[in-house]
Q: What sequence folds into this?
């Protein structure tokens, strides 16, 4: 992210930054809280959470090493999303005032930030569009893919009580329809589940069930 930034600007960032290690499942900041800093992930993984469906905030994407997050601090008084560690992570924390000054003096850095923001907005739009306008299967698959963003293929506890009934309510359909889709996905080897846990066995094949960008999302059922 900092390629082509001058040595003087790098020195300015370094002298006004500090490195902090966050344990797994720790909130670095939450949406709609006051902006103070911009963050660069040194190592680890940080989940970016946005839209809330029922009782759960859903992950839009995962930030990897050398990526900037919290960039909304440069233009807003509150953060536009929540950042939470997916594993133990080292993060460089820089005040928004210093980072903003460096970005203004470094066109390559400003360009990369703009590209990153554009990609994140596109991902958020696609997610929201699928959850709002997709048919039941599209909404279900979109939701399932948020459960295991790190592709652990391990049984994960359901993030809510009530099982299929609650899931059906969250996705705007009937329990019977959700159960039928889940049984088919399990039969096809894409997922496994019981009353307490869900296992995503093949995220790549699940993604193939989603419409390609620009092709529509099907009719809501």
A:
């Amino acid at each position: 992210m900092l390629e082509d930034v001058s040595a003087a600007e790098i020195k300015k960032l370094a002298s006004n930054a500090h490195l902090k290690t966050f344990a797994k499942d720790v909130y670095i900041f939450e949406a709609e809280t006051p902006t103070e800093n911009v963050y660069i992930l040194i190592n680890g993984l940080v989940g970016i959470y946005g839209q809330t469906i029922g009782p759960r905030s859903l992950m839009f994407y995962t930030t990897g090493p050398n990526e900037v997050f919290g960039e909304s601090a440069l233009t807003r008084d509150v953060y536009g999303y929540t950042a939470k560690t997916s594993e133990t992570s080292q993060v460089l924390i820089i005040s928004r005032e210093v980072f903003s000054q460096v970005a203004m003096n470094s066109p390559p850095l400003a360009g990369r930030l703009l590209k990153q923001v554009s990609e994140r907005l596109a991902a958020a739009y696609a997610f929201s569009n699928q959850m709002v306008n997709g048919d039941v299967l599209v909404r279900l698959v979109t939701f399932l893919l948020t459960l295991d963003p790190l592709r652990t293929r391990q049984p994960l506890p359901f993030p809510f009580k009530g099982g299929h009934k609650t899931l059906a309510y969250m996705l705007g359909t009937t329990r019977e329809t959700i159960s039928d889709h889940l049984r088919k996905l399990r039969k096809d080897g894409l997922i496994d589940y019981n009353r307490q846990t869900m296992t995503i066995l093949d995220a790549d094949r699940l993604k193939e069930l989603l419409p390609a960008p620009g092709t529509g999302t099907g009719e809501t059922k």
